Amino acid sequence: MLARQNRLTRGVDYRQVVRRGTRCGGPRLVTSLLPGSEPRAPRFGFIISKQVGSAVVRNTVRRRLKAVCAEFRDTIPEGTDVVIRALPASATAGFAELRADVARCLNRLAAGPVRS
Question: 79 exposed, middle or buried (CB, 10 Å; 0-12, 13-18, 19+)?
Answer without folding.
Answer: middle
